[in-house]
Specification:
It is a single chain. The protein folds into two domains: 5-290, Rossmann fold (3-Layer(aba) Sandwich); 340-486, Isoleucyl-tRNA Synthetase, Domain 1 (Orthogonal Bundle). It is 48% helix and 15% strand. It is built from 18 helices and 16 strands. The protein has helices at 20-40, 56-64, 69-86, 100-115, 167-179, 187-197, 230-233, 246-252, 265-278, 310-317, 321-329, 340-370, 384-405, 409-430, 432-435, 442-463, 468-477, 482-486, and strands at 5-13, 45-52, 93-96, 119-129, 134-136, 155-164, 184-185, 204-205, 208-209, 217-219, 222-227, 256-261, 286-290, 293-295, 298-299, 336-338. The strands form four sheets. The chain has a six-stranded parallel β-sheet with strand order 3-2-1-12-13-7, with helices on both faces. A four-stranded antiparallel β-sheet has the order 5-4-6-8. The structure holds one RNA strand.
RNA sequence: GGCGGCGUAGCUCAAACGGUUAGAGCACGCGGCUCAUAUCCGCGGAGUUGUAGGUUCGAGUCCUACCGCCGCCA
């Protein structure tokens, strides 16, 4: 039985179009998914993303634009889909929390928890911040009862609501985190989660009276209320499955990898496990927590107008460039900083000079000296100088895989580039362009070029999860089909195979000004 | 206030259990090559590893205090 894996991004809150932060999470998740598709086979990987469309922030955003809420979220969901298509995000399911199937799923889970007595009704009076969609205690608020996040006054309201018994499950969740060291990773976030689980939890309010806010999923046991907060969104990870099929759910969860930002750690490390336990389901495999993308050293925020649009960069620099930058530059789990200057530096140094130029010079020599034909078996009949490049490309894929599986995407790319370095050094060490002038050295030139072309071929294979469009271009230049692409070094390109003449994959960008 | 994290070359990052002159890449300077996108290769400078103490034969790595940045909780 082949190993399976289930991979999710956060279900993105859809009060605005996607920005670089969303793109960043989607890239990491997509890379992970693509990597595992290659490792486990396409049908053993499920990649879920989607949009969280209920709630009063969405409702207000819609009203501000003079739209009905559904019309508004339709627009946003489409914007995410379009963006993800352009960014090559290879999801299998795009779940919208307004999908009828999803709504039924949530209602089924609500009813189950209610029947079990884990959801109960009580009156609640408190200070409520509309922006946060939550109540605050007075201690938490700033002087004047201002919300610490929004700096706006919290309103005192009284209302009856439904609550989820969280505290009851705290110790069980804590034990799971303790006994599963990599449950939440990187470790820094595990420590934070343990911190949260170390003290009593208040029960979680999971409903809103329709009288105040009706843009949500109606509670199956009380038609005066809706849910839209976390009880809604989490289930989107699973709602492509039937809610009643506990066996299927119990199969998926233990292989489920959730990718989230550090801002929603508590909800995923505490609330979500509690909901799963209440539903009698196993917990997910890993919570993979990333930091925030800053923009020019500052937190992205609407008020300061520094919300970079990923599609803009995709348009300006071509496919994969933003993606490469974010994956190479940011250490997963830590905050990253995005600047266009830095992106251009990376583009020129890594993409144009290393990858692009190497491709160009190798294909150029192949065309010039061998009429684009592979005329030797790569990796065979090696001399001492050949060992370095052969070993580099033989060992790189495994190292890349280890790094991807531990979420060190930047180091995975670094490992690929080390192999590219070995190829460039190999050209200098063997000087095929000099040997080509001597008739009797032609067989040696053929072997050198075969080794290099095979290196590019393995590069295309390794690069696919990170830079799918570039990998496809490279595979096309090398005329390598899927099976050839996947082969280990030395077993891909065969004598007689023909490659295309070079093109500039990444034309160098001249520094502005 | 409590808990936790981070602070290593100009920049981005590495350095299993503490152990030989703290490493890469980028940027910068010099030299070489010409197949290539003025690309590539080689060499080089630069760090009292936030500060001050302590433990140890030996500490970036452990302990204490402090400074700075940040996060979580209350």
């Amino acid at each position: 039985m082949a190993e399976r894996i289930h991979i999710t991004t956060a279900i993105f809150y859809s009060n605005g179009p996607p920005h670089v932060g969303h793109a960043s999470e989607a890239f990491a998740t997509d890379t992970f998914a693509r990597y595992f598709r290659r490792k486990l086979g396409r049908k053993n990987v499920t990649f879920v993303t989607g949009t969280d469309e209920h709630g009063d922030k969405n409702l207000r955003a819609a009203t501000a634009q003079g739209l009905a809420p559904k019309a508004f979220v339709d627009r946003i969901a489409q914007a995410f889909r379009d963006a993800f298509a352009t960014l090559n995000i290879s999801y299998d399911f795009f779940v919208r929390t307004t999908d009828p199937v999803h709504e039924k799923f949530v209602q089924s889970m609500l009813q189950g928890a209610y029947d079990k007595g884990e959801i109960y009704y009580r009156d609640y009076q408190g200070l409520y911040c509309v922006g946060c969609e939550r109540f605050y205690t007075e201690k938490e608020l700033l002087p004047g009862n201002l919300c610490p996040a929004h700096n706006t006054p919290a309103e005192l309201i009284t209302e009856g609501n439904y609550f989820l018994r969280l505290e009851k499950y705290r110790e069980q969740i804590r034990q799971h985190v303790l006994s599963t060291p990599d449950f939440i990773r990187p470790e820094r976030y595990r420590n934070e989660a343990l911190n949260m689980l170390g003290e009593p939890l208040e029960d979680l309010c999971i409903s809103r009276p329709k009288a105040r806010m009706d843009w949500g999923i109606e509670l199956p046991f009380d038609s005066n209320y809706v849910t839209y907060v976390w009880y809604d969104a989490f289930w989107a990870y699973l709602s492509e499955l039937p809610a009643t099929d506990k066996a299927a759910l119990a199969e998926v969860l233990p292989v489920s990898e959730h990718f989230i930002g550090k801002d929603i750690l508590k909800t995923h490390a505490v609330y979500w496990p509690a909901m799963l336990l209440i539903a009698g389901l196993p917990l997910y495999r890993h919570l993979n927590v990333h930091g925030w993308m800053n923009f020019r050293g500052e937190r992205m925020s609407k008020s300061s107008g520094n919300i970079p649009d990923p599609l803009e960069y995709e348009k300006t620099y071509g496919p994969d460039v933003l993606r490469y930058f974010l994956m190479r530059e940011v250490v997963y789990g830590l905050d990253g900083d995005f600047t266009e200057e830095r992106l251009i530096e990376r583009y020129n140094a890594d993409l144009a000079n290393d990858l692009g130029n190497l491709t160009s010079r190798v294909l150029s020599m192949a065309a010039r000296y061998c009429e684009g034909e592979v005329r030797a078996a790569p990796g065979a009949a090696r001399e001492d100088v050949d060992s370095a490049i052969i070993q580099a490309f033989e060992s790189a894929p495994a190292r890349v895989g280890e790094f991807v599986e531990e979420l060190s995407f930047n180091r995975a790319l670094e490992a690929i580039w080390q192999a590219l370095d070995a190829a460039n050094k190999y050209i200098v060490a063997t000087e095929p362009f000099k040997l080509a002038k001597k008739e009797d050295a032609r067989p040696r030139v053929a072997r050198i070029l075969a080794n290099l072309l095979e290196g590019l071929r393995v590069t295309a294979d390794m690069l696919e999860p990170f830079m799918p469009a570039t990998a496809a271009k490279l595979a096309d230049l090398l005329q390598a089909d899927e099976a050839t692409l996947r082969a280990p070094y030395g077993t891909g390109l065969k004598p007689g195979h023909r490659v295309k003449p070079p093109v500039a994959l990444f034309p160098r960008i001249e520094k502005p000004k």
